[in-house]
Amino acid sequence: MAYKIISSQCTACSACEPECPNNAIREKDGTFIIKPEKCSECIGYFDEPQCVAVCPVDDTCVIDNSYPRYVAA
Amino acid sequence: MDIQASVASVESSQGKPLDQVLQQIAEHKGCGTSSEGGKASCGSSTAPEDMDPAIWEKVKNHPCYSEEAHHHFARMHVAVAPACNIQCNYCNRKYDCANESRPGVVSEKLTPEQASRKVLAVASTIPQMTVLGIAGPGDPLANPEKTFKTFELVAQTAPDIKLCVSTNGLALPEHVERLSQFNIDHVTITINMVDPEVGQHIYPWIFWKNKRWKGIDAARILHEHQMRGLEMLTERGILCKVNSVMIPGINDKHLVEVNKAVKSRGAFLHNIMPLISAPEHGTVFGLNGQRGPTAQELKALQDSCEGEMNMMRHCRQCRADAVGLLGEDRSSEFSTEKVMEMDIQYDAEGRKAYQEKVEEERQATVLAKQAEMAGLEAEFSDLKVLIAVATKGHGRVNEHFGHAQEFQIYELSTQGSKFVGHRRVDLYCQGGYGEEDTLPTVIRAINDCVAVFVAKIGGCPKDSLKAAGIDPVDKYAHEFIEQSAVKYFKEYLAKVKSGEVVHEVRGDADIRQGAYIAA
After folding, report:
1. Where are the domains of chain A?
2. Based on C-alpha coordinates, what's the Rg of chain B?
3. pLDDT for the residue B466
């Protein structure tokens, strides 16, 4: 799995973008999106996913169940 | 909490009765009080004797650091810093309304390049605009690259504009060095507590060192960074203003402690602001019914801190993209679209000449007041009254009652006149017709005043004001505010002495929440 951003919730504050250790986040059409193939759920980097920890709106950066769970190499 | 409780808190915190505290304030001759008997004092005079000239140079045309300057000089904010590193219970980043004037609210975000163009456009149109601040809508130091890039661009093209930032302080210690390299003279830190026990009720979390910290740990880290940042700034001679949000029942009594803590660390000015919380803002405090303070509660707290240090009472809690004099907002004239179309000629010499004129005008208002003070000093009276003034700026009574979006409040005594606050009101008049239903709102906002000074007023509101015990005064139209105020007070004292007027203590007044700024 990877994380995804619920675009209707996103305030486009950009706080998540520089925190992502994988450069998986970018702005698109006025909100931010996570590239799932780049997202490692911050496993191996930090104790908690950085986008979730810094996002000012609860339940905006959430697990994307449609994507297979990330497995650390 | 009611007024009595607020007054009681003042008593307990000082360990002496309120009268004594007020007396002490009246006797205080230092910064923050108005000029007494023609004696110059900090932030409110033309030639301050008790202020370091170097500091005076820094504040004399900064509207947010000098009450006097705010009548004459304008500021602007650019919204280049949307990200934040903490969550406050009085802030909700999901809520943005173009017509709202509140910190954290903006109409559009800008890139540093757009922002620097906007600064030039505004500086060319409003020559008395002297200050560029970055105040979010997030935290400028949580967006350091965008913030410093903007400063770099502006410093290159408009070196006469003062740069400042307003921060929550969490990332301050790591950026102090860079701030001082950019020649930033003014930094504002929002400090709502010096005790994490109190802080945990204001800040649900912070993001620091790649981790979300909650509760008391979050408040402790934030507090430590705020204090360290403040100390580092004052060590480098950077002027610090401390903003505190007064939240009744949570930190209202505690702010006296905050005041002492920031003063001892060298803060220059303390700005205690009322909490803005309405359910429709969707903030934690708005939704759980946390109220803001009344006008009297706010003034009592500001008065009790004033003996300690300079207090700012002219803050308009403006938007993160505000443009113009404090209390006016011309941001809609400078949207990115409009700015891109503008033909910008940056005329540094012209700006300087204009600002020198403004400076002359500013000095004239002070001298006029000082001349009027003659005769008042000899009076013995402990009478104090508040008046409301409708003004468009320049220190004059120059606004129509029905057009006023705010009233400035002055306290009058034998010490002279002193600016003690302002009240926002909804537009009472639209298109030349008075709207009956908004008049009670205006009256509630200035209910603690004995008079309202206006340039002009219609017959109908005049009668309603009189019925409410507020004297509508239009005879000082276009005169200097403070000179007129002293003149009025002399007459008032004479009338009380002769028995023509019976002085009565006025009631409390409302602090208006989330007033609309668009006409």
Report:
1. 2-64
2. 22
3. 95
Q: Does domain A2-64 have CATH number 3.40.50.1820?
A: no
**CA atoms of A32 and A18, how far apart (whole Å):** 12
Residues 6+ apart with CB under 8 A from B172: B141, B187, B189, B225, B226, B228, B229, B230, B232, B233
pLDDT digits (tens, 9 = 90+) for B141-190: 999 999 999 999 999 999 999 999 999 999 999 999 999 998 898 999 99
Average pLDDT score over residue span B25-36: 36
Asked if A54 and B82 come within 8 Å (Cβ–Cβ), the reply is no
DSSP string over B318-331:
--TT-EESTT---G
Closest Cβ–Cβ partner in B93, B211, B212 for A13:
B93
Q: State the pLDDT at residue B441.
A: 85
pLDDT band at B483 (very low <50, low <70, confident <90, very high): very high
Contact status, residue B508 vs residue B418, Cβ threshold 8 Å: no
What residues in A contact B137, CB-CB < 8 Å?
A: 13
Q: Which domains does chain B have, with CATH numbers?
A: 3-334 (3.20.20.70), 373-498 (3.30.420.130)
Tokens 């509760």 locate to B215
pLDDT of residue B436: 52
Is the interface score ipTM higher than 0.85? yes
B210 in A contact zone (CB under 8 Å): yes
Rounded CA-CA distance B240/B266 in Å is 8
Whole-structure pTM value: 0.84
d(CA B423, CA B233): 32
Question: What is the amino acid identity at position B235?
Answer: E
Q: Which two tokens stand for residue A36?
A: 């799932």
